[in-house]
Design brief:
InterPro entries: YbfA. α1 packs antiparallel against α2. The protein is mostly helical. The model has no long low-confidence stretch (mean pLDDT 82).
C-alpha cells in the first residue's frame, strides 16, 4: 500500500536534517520552543516511506490501529 523512498533520498534527507540541526543549534539553545523544533527534525529524519510517521511508529511497536 505504501512505497518506500529510494535510499538516495533517505540519505539526502538525513544529511539535510543533521546540517539544519547543527546550523540552528547556536540559536535554538536560547529559545524556549527548541523541543518542538528538534521534534520536527526527528519526524523528518524518521520519514522513510509515504506512510505517515505516526502510523509507521504505531505499527513498529506492534499496535493495531483500526
Amino acid at each position: 500500500m505504501y512505497q518506500h523512498y529510494p535510499l538516495q533520498k533517505i540519505i539526502l534527507r538525513r544529511v539535510a536534517v543533521v546540517l539544519v540541526g547543527l546550523l540552528a543549534l547556536p540559536v535554538m539553545v536560547f529559545r524556549a520552543d527548541r523541543a518542538r523544533f528538534y521534534s520536527y527534525l526527528h519526524r523528518i529524519w524518521s520519514k522513510t516511506s509515504t506512510k505517515p510517521v505516526w502510523l509507521a511508529q504505531t505499527e513498529a511497536v506492534g499496535g493495531d490501529f483500526y
